[in-house]
Design brief:
The structure is a single chain. This protein has 2 domains: 49 residues, no CATH class; 56 residues. It is built from 3 helices and 4 strands; from the N terminus they run H-E-E-E-E-H-H. The chain is elongated, with a radius of gyration of 24 Å. Strands 1-2-3-4 form a 4-stranded antiparallel sheet, with helices on one face. The chain is an alpha+beta fold. The longest helix has 27 residues.
Length: 120
């Protein structure tokens, strides 16, 4: 047993003494046992981090993320409108290619946002 293992066991014992309970779950990062704290939070003593369990079909996105994604999509659509005007007025082929690449990236990002929102 390494000295790190001793510290982890001490940390786990401290959690139990403070009222935490051992669950049947294991940490997805390090596979150590997960403890349920008195606050209801799940905790990995080895990683020293809170663990969030997401059930299949459940979203980890908060309602606030809807607003953020809507604002981001709106911003991207505004940039697409600006690019459209620039493309319309541009005669230089090299510049048109760069504008087209930028347009393509903006459209890809809008598609990603919509895909994320549809999986909630």
């Amino acid at each position: 047993m390494s000295s790190g293992d001793g510290q982890e066991i001490k940390s786990m014992a401290d959690l139990l003494r403070s009222g935490a309970t051992l669950t049947d779950l294991s940490c997805p990062v390090c596979s150590s046992p997960i403890f349920k704290l008195r606050t209801g939070d799940l905790w990995c003593a080895k990683c020293e981090k809170k663990v969030v369990v997401v059930k299949e079909g459940e979203s980890t996105l908060s309602p606030m993320s809807d607003v953020i994604f809507e604002n981001l999509e709106s911003t991207l659509l505004g940039k697409i409108k600006e690019l459209s005007s620039e493309i319309e007025a541009e005669a230089d082929l090299n510049r048109l290619l760069r504008l087209g690449e930028a347009l393509s990236k903006l459209l890809e990002n809008i598609e990603r946002i919509r895909r994320i929102q549809s999986h909630k």
